[in-house]
Amino acid sequence: MADEFAKGFGILTTAGLGWMVLAGWFTTASFEEGQLLAPPPENPDMYGQIALLLKDALFWFAILGALTFWVVIPAIDQAREALSERGN
């Protein structure tokens, strides 16, 4: 179980850091207003579009990756153990 927690935490921190860096570059209008959550630029160049796509992908990877290792995989393991005990 500690192994799954470490993997989920690694995914959460690494992808979260990547999301925060890209959000800081592209969606922070000023330091007095909503940082990291401002609307993206209206007409980004090709690299800006790729970075905005990567920002969204990192956000969802952080959330779904952590939930997978913290909730889904332990639930599957417990279900397998319960089914194997029931079969014996």
How do the helices and strands line up, and which of them pair or pack?
Blueprint: H1 2-26, H2 46-87
Helix pairs in contact: 1-2
Domain DUF7314: 1-86
InterPro entries: DUF7314
Transmembrane segments: 9-27, 57-76
Could you please describe the fold and organization of this structure?
The protein is mainly α and 88 residues long. The chain has one domain. It contains two helices and no strands. It has helices at 2-26, 46-87. α1 packs antiparallel against α2.
Structurally, the number of domains stands at: 1
**Sheet having the most strands:** none
Helical stretch count? 2
SSE order in H/E notation?
Answer: HH
Radius of gyration: 19 Å
Instruction: Identify the overall geometry.
Output: elongated
Structural class: mainly alpha
Please tell me the overall pLDDT.
91
Low-confidence stretches: none
Organism: Halorientalis brevis
Transmembrane segments: 9-27, 57-76
Keywords: Membrane, Transmembrane, Transmembrane helix
Protein name: DUF7314 domain-containing protein
